[in-house]
TrEMBL record:
Record-linked SMART domains: HTH_XRE
Molecular-function GO terms, alphabetical: DNA binding
InterPro entries: Cro/C1-type_HTH, Lambda_DNA-bd_dom_sf, TPR-like_helical_dom_sf
Signal peptide: none
Organism, as annotated: Haloactinospora alba
Name the record gives this protein: Helix-turn-helix protein
Pfam entry (one): HTH_31
Gene3D superfamilies, alphabetized: lambda repressor-like DNA-binding domains, Tetratricopeptide repeat domain
Stretches assigned to the HTH cro/C1-type domain: 13-66
Record-linked CDD domains: HTH_XRE
Length: 366
């Protein structure tokens, strides 16, 4: 087992290759490695050298994600994880920490390649982690339940992003978070259930679930719930409550910025610029199209370069394209829509592609 590739490394590389439409043979040629050797590495039959991992990471533009994923697994760590899977009572602290590190890298990788390529690997990993939970006893149980709750939430997010439904993963995350006492994840799971209702267009449960989410967690987590509540009020055309919630979210984010060490790892993307995008979306629902377009275009431009072409950012560009079309800025609307289609193709997001095609047809019929 010590000679095997780190769990998930080959899957991640293949997912990126598929999203970029690059073959394994082409990657071998670009990195100056033997095709057969690279194939064995990606199949999990041989461990890659650090130089190889760094070369692949650089060629695929993974910005250190693959390097970090590989380095989080040493042969000793891999052996502990396998033993833990086979004999849950031998699960140790190092194995749990390694699992948490893997999940952190998965979240970052989603920014680069989108939700669709990661969905099945993450569901498979969650099944393994769930096996560890079922057999865990004693003091280690709380730690592995905590990690499992975070994995279930991420699986729910990926499922909702690519298929419009969480497949029950948010309920699983909520149950696990309540068992281990992770208030931040309790809040996040409730807020994700609110997000699911937003996807369905149901204002009342959006508001109710996001209000419940604000009873738990850190300022950053509660800020996400407050802006989600604002969406619900905006959909119900309640401008005063919308502004109140957005102002509350801004205050909470400022608190989170003062103490970033207290925030959980899954809110790494949240910022005042991100909140401006939420404000823009709420204003769009309220019919403030000009203000919404200005806020959204400005906040999208202010995002870090690595976030500007992600799948989740593309959904805000969908909104921006709609706003430009409402304002009769046809050329700008078409330009933004082209960017959305590029991201949909790169990330293999059928849901995003469907939305882009729908808008393209709607613009043509306008």
């Amino acid at each position: 087992m010590n000679d095997s590739t780190p769990r998930g490394f080959g899957d991640e590389v293949r997912a990126i290759l598929a999203s970029q439409r690059v073959s394994v043979r082409a990657l071998a040629r670009r990195t100056n490695y033997d095709h057969a050797y690279l194939s064995r590495v990606l199949a999990g039959k041989q461990r890659p050298s650090r130089d190889m991992v760094e070369a692949i990471d650089a060629q695929l533009g993974a910005e250190g994600q693959l390097t970090a994923l590989s380095s989080s697994h040493t042969p000793d760590t891999e052996e502990r994880l396998v033993k833990a899977t086979n004999v849950p009572r031998r699960l140790d602290v190092s194995a749990v920490e390694s699992l948490a590190n893997i999940l952190t890298q998965q979240r970052r990788l989603e920014d680069a390649i989108g939700s669709a390529p990661l969905l099945e690997p993450v569901k498979s990993q969650l099944a393994t982690v769930s096996e560890l939970v079922s057999g865990a006893r004693g003091s280690i149980r709380n730690s592995i339940v905590d990690v499992a709750s975070q994995w279930a939430q991420f699986a729910g997010w990926l499922h909702t992003s690519s298929k419009s439904d969480d497949h029950g993963f948010y309920d699983q995350a909520l149950s696990l978070a309540m068992e281990c006492g992770n208030d931040a994840m309790v809040s996040t799971a409730l807020n994700m259930k609110s997000h699911k209702e937003w996807v369905r267009g149901n204002p009342a449960p959006i508001v109710g679930l996001s209000q419940a989410a604000q009873r738990h967690g850190t300022p950053g987590v509660r800020a996400m719930a407050a802006q989600q509540e604002a969406r619900g009020h905006a959909l119900a055309n309640d401008a005063d409550e919308t502004e109140r919630c957005l102002d509350n979210a801004e205050s909470l984010i400022e608190q989170a910025i003062e103490h970033p060490e207290s925030e959980p790892p899954w809110v790494y993307f949240y910022s005042l610029d991100y909140l401006q995008m939420q404000r823009a979306r709420a204003y769009m629902y309220l019919g403030y199209h000009e203000s919404a377009a200005h806020l959204l275009s400005t906040s999208l431009d202010a995002l870090p370069d690595e976030q500007k072409h992600t799948e989740w950012t593309a959904w805000y560009k969908v909104d921006l394209a709609k706003l430009y079309r409402h304002l009769h800025a046809t050329e700008l609307a078409e330009k933004v829509l082209e960017e959305v289609q590029t991201v949909a193709s790169t990330t293999q997001s059928s849901r995003l592609e469907h939305q882009a095609q729908h808008l393209k047809k709607a613009f043509g019929d306008w």
